[in-house]
Amino acid sequence: xxxxxxxxxxxxxxxxxxxxxxxxxxxxxxxxxxxxxxxxxxxxxxxxxxxxxxxxxxxxxxxxxxxxxxxxxxxxxxxxxxxxxxxxxxxxxxxxxxxxxxxxxxxxxxxxxxxxxxxxxxxxxxxxxxxxxxxxxxxxxxxxxxxxxxxxxxxxxxxxxxxxxxxxxxxxxxxxxxxxxxxxxxxxxxxxxxxxxxxxxxxxxxxxxxxxxxxxx
Length: 217
Description:
This protein is an alpha+beta fold and 217 residues long. The chain is 45% helix and 18% strand.
């Protein structure tokens, strides 16, 4: 009887943990022509989340210099952004219907949006969505991933090619202005390191300060 009691006790302890599991939105992105070719971004309603990327087999571009390593780390977006993500998902019945347009448009990468929560679950996969809100949501999450990948690239350049930081920061400034990169707060750590590093160019440090100010805005 004792082994059975132990099993029942462990099961009882596990039930509250399973019951308290909160809702999660995930975007699984894949495009073999890009680097990284595959990544997964997971978000909780409070803005916490995780990002994991895999490089894939695309040829290395020699003009890009050092490549960032695969990313596998916890991240945090703003509470306002996370709220918008979950509101959009709930407004579409927790992604319970098809969202692919089936139109002949340029391949942008397969995006599988998934929702899991106590109020249900659903997913939809699209290259280009027939629903403007879902399409915009996908683009926003891709832009968040862009910020995280850029942060990893800055870390690599800081270690191996400080001169290369200047060009990369110019791109990052432009990309945050036109929306290709969003939620710069996800790379606050590397930006703070650049600001505090006297061995990098003053222009790089200035751009890092400006980006940090945008992250606070």
